[in-house]
Design brief:
Length: 371
């Protein structure tokens, strides 16, 4: 009883100090971030994050009408947290050629509200860089009004390696072909220790950051993410957030931040790690909002969180609920329990029920309509 009392008392002192800083709009330190993770008062954490969310972006909650396309699941990286990537000779392996991609995009444009595409794929062992450039050019030529967000920092690094071009040249070539933004995947945890263990065959932390910085220099906005709930420590989560905050101070080019709670099903780690708790998910959402004071948007990715928890997360610092998606494969390969697609009406109702204003936007957060 005494131990519990002592813990609650000392936490109250620490959180009071941090709460004062938040109310004054002061930047939180690494120590503050660690102390916030120690705090079990989830309601207080939520209210602090909600306050910061309101200050930064008011009551608008963004969603978009989009379509995910994964060109191939064949992947040379084979990260131990991923259930989507596979070898070329696997029964699940698939490849989309340009004709098929254009067919899928045409079908998607049957929805007059479709604003853009989200393209993330495996690191294919033999496709040349030109293959991807031609696909982007073909989509843009045939569907010029669609916004194209594609290729994570990991894919861009792969393209640089296979083409012998610099990261800047790769990005410039894709931009000239019609690419407008980069998704936030591939950041995982920006720590060499973690990457060596989980994903040694792809971009290092500094390569991922170099892609983001170069894209921002060229005027391409990118997203950022954190994959948590595997082998990382709480300190590594906070360091990850601080690394992103530092780069954002420099460039201002990150548009939104996404927390990916690790889904272990069908991955190499399925027997080692359990799915994160809702408690951890909401805590991480709130702490991300509080630490990333220079990010305008924090995404509650309904695919990973499920729709009810994503709705709840709108009270824990999030102001972006992603999109209609139409076909989600990466997270569902790893056992995501949400549906693979949602209607625009469902997203609008979800945001409204949370007491917020639904705002439809494109992949660069340009407002299409305020409801
Ligand atoms: O880098 C893969 C994550 C990312 C698992 O920018 C997993 O708006 C949890 O980039 N459990 C790729 N997470 C997806 C991606 C993305 C998705 C949605 C929105 C945006 C955006 C970007 O997916 C990977 C990795 O971090 N991931 N496997 C898994 N088992």
């Amino acid at each position: 009883m005494f131990i519990v009392y002592k813990k609650v008392k000392s936490l109250t002192e620490v959180t009071k100090k941090i709460g004062d800083k938040i109310l004054k709009g002061e930047r939180l330190t690494k120590e503050d971030g660690l102390a916030l993770y120690d705090c079990d008062d989830l309601a207080w954490l939520g209210s602090m994050a909600d306050l910061v969310r309101y200050r930064i972006s008011g009551d608008y909650v963004y969603y978009n009408v989009n379509r995910h396309i994964n060109l191939t699941n064949i992947c040379t990286s084979r990260c131990s947290f991923c259930a989507f990537g596979c070898d070329e000779d696997s029964q699940q392996a698939y490849e989309m050629n340009q004709e098929r991609v254009l067919e899928v995009v045409k079908q998607a444009t049957a929805d007059p509200d479709l604003s853009g595409l989200h393209i993330v794929s495996g690191l294919h062992p033999t496709w040349p860089f030109e293959y991807y450039v031609n696909i982007i050019r073909a989509i843009k030529t045939n569907f010029p009004t669609l916004h194209l967000k594609g290729f994570t920092g990991v894919e861009i690094t792969h393209f640089a390696k296979i083409s012998g071009k610099s990261i800047r040249q790769v990005l410039q070539t894709l931009m000239d072909a019609g690419l407008e933004a980069l998704p936030g995947g591939g950041a995982e945890i920006l720590s060499d220790r973690i990457r060596q263990q989980l994903c040694p065959n792809k971009a290092t932390a500094s390569e991922w950051l170099e892609v983001a910085q170069t894209a921002h220099d060229l005027g391409i906005k990118t997203n950022a993410s954190m994959l948590y709930g595997h082998i990382e420590t709480i300190e590594e989560r906070i360091d990850h957030l601080l690394t992103l905050r530092k780069l954002q101070d420099k460039t201002g080019g990150f548009q939104t931040f996404i927390c990916f709670p690790f889904h272990p099903e069908h991955t190499e780690m399925a027997n080692m790690v359990q799915r994160t708790s809702v408690w951890d998910d909401l805590k991480t959402m709130a702490i991300s909002r509080l630490m990333l004071d220079n990010f305008r948007n924090i995404k509650a990715y309904w695919v990973m969180l499920t729709l009810p928890i994503a709705q709840l997360a709108l009270g824990f610092g999030a102001n972006d609920i992603d999109g209609t998606i139409q076909e989600e494969k990466i997270m569902h390969a790893a056992g995501a329990k949400s549906s693979t697609s949602l209607s625009k009406e469902t997203l609008i109702a979800t945001i409204r029920e949370a007491g917020r204003t639904p705002v439809e936007c494109d992949c660069n957060f340009n407002i299409v309509k305020v409801f």
